[in-house]
Amino acid sequence: MKDIRREIADDNEVDDVLHRKRNKIISLLKTKFDFQNAHLRSTANNNDGLLEKCKNYDAPDQAKALGIYPYFREIEAASGSQVVIEGKKVVTVSTNNYLGLTQDPRVVEAAKKALDLFGAGCTGSRFLNGTLSLHKRLETELADFLGREDSIVMSTGFQANQGTISCLLGRKDVAFSDRENHASIYEGCAISPGKTMRYNHNDMEHLEYYLKKYRDVPGKLIITDTIFSMSGDIANLPAIVKLAKDYGAVVLVDEAHGLGVMGDGGRGVASYYSLEKEIDLYMGTFSKSLGSIGGFISSNKKVTEYIRHKASAFIFTAALPPASVAGVLAALDIMISEPWRQEKLQENTSYVKKGFFDMGFQVNNNVVPIVPIKVGDEALTLFMNQLLFEDGVFAGVAVSPVVPSQQAMIRTSFMSNHSREDLDYVLNSFKKFGVELGIIPR
């Protein structure tokens, strides 16, 4: 890593033109490590045996050898906006803990009490021996909060999507899914017997094209994230709802990143657009604004009863542990009673987006606290991410195939309990390395 920085510094002394500087750095990095080819190339012939592909997969090893491997960093401690990794404190902007509730003393205390009362786990599925009074209470409170008849609490958000979609989408039905939807949505569609049409991201004309094509199919399901986890884009929910009405489709929204972030009281994007009554199925998670783990589906009682008895991902997995459920109950109460958290989150988001924009980075002009910094080249992105980490900033990174080739990004996300000092530190670090690597002008 130090050798690469030295070579870059030497090579850049004579050329400060932005695109040439950037291209020289990428070229130098590619002589050391071509992530794109190493990650995506064919790793085994068909006749080499099942596990040969594993033996030949060397992209992580190459990245580790250069000191730019960004994944599975061990967090040794966490406090507010800072975490300890490799023995040093760093500011985290690699989090979905938007309202800062994961370590709230009231949430932690509620989890401790549940441990004392129920133990560490349920040791069985909700369907048989794993339903606690805590699960039922949380289902009731979620339904009341969202103004819906019923909710189902599941062990993960992934299972909430996968289980619901796969049990609802029958052999003759068609799902219409945004190309940037979460992997759990595509998993649910893939294992269902129905057909799935992927429309271009937030492209309502393309969605309508498919709806027209399958207008004679009675069972149609439009599925969309409300806030897309990588880009931070907001779904065009008003247009989706209108198209659903025009073509007789059901709407399922994934509010994983919308809950707690947008809408009245943090009820999500559906609430932000005043479309709560137009949404047939509301999916949410507990692992973002509510600071724990798990997921849920809210709908009318006939729909939730069907899912309870048909969704394999719900029936054949152990129930969410009592401490997690109790923590979510406490976090939900805090989110409702302390609206300043959502306001502070939006204030921090506005501040940091303006800071990035003023430097020359492209950012979305919305209130979503997901702020992807697009770098483009995979190797350059990994290199910059490592520089940031060494400078005390822990950020996420997304490369192909999570994002399209040559659209790699450093994914930052922010919390209500980031201080102004935290935000300024992060912005200064991005500016320093953005200039050094030829990504933004001086």
Distinctive features:
single chain; 442 residues; alpha/beta; Aspartate Aminotransferase, domain 1; Aspartate Aminotransferase, domain 2; 2 domains; seven-stranded mixed beta sheet; 16% strand
List strands and helices in order, with pairings.
Elements: H1 2-11, H2 18-32, H3 35-40, H4 52-56, H5 59-66, E1 75-79, E2 82-85, E3 88-93, H6 105-118, H7 133-146, E4 150-154, H8 157-168, E5 174-178, H9 183-191, E6 195-199, H10 204-213, E7 220-225, H11 237-247, E8 250-254, H12 269-272, E9 281-285, E10 295-299, H13 301-310, H14 312-315, H15 322-337, H16 340-359, E11 370-376, H17 378-390, E12 393-398, E13 408-413, H18 420-436
Parallel strand pairs: 3-12, 5-6, 5-7, 7-8, 8-9
Antiparallel strand pairs: 1-2, 2-3, 4-10, 9-10, 11-13, 12-13
Helix pairs in contact: 1-2, 6-15, 7-15, 8-9, 10-11, 16-18
Q: How does this structure look, described?
A:
The protein has 442 residues and is of the alpha/beta class. The chain folds into two domains: 2-98 and 340-436, Aspartate Aminotransferase, domain 1, CATH 3.90.1150; 105-337, 3-Layer(aba) Sandwich (Aspartate Aminotransferase, domain 2), CATH 3.40.640. It is 45% helix and 16% strand. The chain has helices at 2-11, 18-32, 35-40, 52-56, 59-66, 105-118, 133-146, 157-168, 183-191, 204-213, 237-247, 269-272, 301-310, 312-315, 322-337, 340-359, 378-390, 420-436; strands spanning 75-79, 82-85, 88-93, 150-154, 174-178, 195-199, 220-225, 250-254, 281-285, 295-299, 370-376, 393-398, 408-413. β5, α9 (183-191) and β6 form a beta-alpha-beta unit. α8 (157-168) packs parallel to α9. The longest helix has 20 residues, at 340-359. The two termini are 23 Å apart. The mean pLDDT is 93.
